[in-house]
TrEMBL record:
Gene Ontology molecular function, alphabetical: metalloendopeptidase activity
Annotated InterPro entries: Cell_wall_metabolism_enzyme, Dup_hybrid_motif, M23ase_b-sheet_dom
Protein's organism: Streptomyces silvensis
Assigned keywords, A-Z: Membrane, Transmembrane, Transmembrane helix
CDD domains: M23_peptidase (cd12797)
Name of the protein in question: Peptidase M23
Superkingdom, natural source: Bacteria
């Protein structure tokens, strides 16, 4: 286990200790002074800063140009946790997420054969419903497309798609319990079902939170741009069905570093920006005409 991984695991363990004693303190008197109860949290923050600083220094001394690829989805989507707004986009360089992006399907706009609000993405619920089934979201089951000519180096879809966590109670559970438990587990429990493509030139594309049982490819397959390789799901550390996409310089999430990307014809959508992605062949024809 690398020093970065060990520090991350110890940090999460300390946060768990802090949480457990904080809850226990509500019901019983703890056998030590109040201020001592904050030591695990302080130590966790300190451990969390160490690997982040080292990673930032490493990235700063070894910048890499953005790689242009096709979009991994088609249709109308919105971006979340985008590297266009901050780097690292997900608040960590761990698991090669430095330039990762999340996108969620927004459904059809009125006038595209749909009534206002029909097929729209459900909003955040403060009280009810606490959770929704994955199929309530337009992202769930959406096709995931190969972003270029590539070889499949990893593909798995055995983990379940869980209910959403897009309510107040759901988010509290997600951050205080589920996120901590998954963080202490192997990386695959964080990213859920995944597909990794080797695009060549030490560039790999990773799709996370893939739908269970939706793989259309397997390791060793050769794929072309725009080919359906799987479908969007809600496996792993996810609050709702969405596509987590990133480029990295190796196939192993524990050792790879993030690589900046640029989607052909789209760029890098900013946080909460809605965009429409065309199929790869359609986008190429569109560029030729205009």
């Amino acid at each position: 286990m690398s020093i970065r991984k060990l520090a991350a695991v110890l940090s999460r363990v300390l946060w768990l200790v802090f949480l457990v004693q904080a809850i226990a303190g509500i019901f019983v008197d703890m056998p030590y002074d109040y201020w001592l109860g904050w030591l695990p949290a302080v130590a966790a923050v300190a451990l969390g800063l160490l690997p982040g600083r080292a990673a930032r220094q490493q990235i700063a001394t070894a910048p890499r140009a953005a790689v242009e690829v096709e979009a991994p989805v088609t249709g109308r989507w919105s971006a979340l946790n985008s590297p266009a707004d901050k780097v690292p986009s997900h608040g960590t360089h761990g698991l090669a997420q430095t330039y990762a992006i999340d996108v969620t399907a927004e459904g059809a706009e009125p006038g595209e054969g749909a009534e206002p609000g029909e097929g729209a993405r459900p909003g955040f619920a403060w009280l009810w419903p606490i959770a929704r089934r994955p199929r309530a979201f337009p992202s769930f089951g959406a096709p995931l497309l190969a972003v270029g000519e590539a070889t499949v180096v990893h593909a798995e879809d055995g983990q379940r798609d869980h209910f959403s966590r897009n309510s107040l109670a759901g988010l509290l559970y997600f951050f205080l319990v589920e996120g901590t438990v998954r963080g202490l587990s192997p990386a695959r429990r964080v990213v859920g079902n995944t597909v990794v493509l080797d695009l060549g030139d030490e560039t790999y594309a990773m799709y996370a939170h893939v739908k269970r049982g939706s793989l259309a490819v397997r390791a060793g397959d050769r794929v072309h741009a725009g080919q359906v390789i799987a479908h969007c799901g809600n496996s792993g550390n996810s609050t709702e069905p969405h596509v987590h996409f990133q480029l990295m310089d190796g196939p192993d999430l524990n050792t790879a570093k993030g690589v900046p990307f640029h989607w052909r014809g789209i760029g890098v959508p900013a946080n909460r920006e809605t965009f429409t992605a065309l199929p790869a062949e359609t986008a190429i024809r569109h560029q030729k005409v205009f």
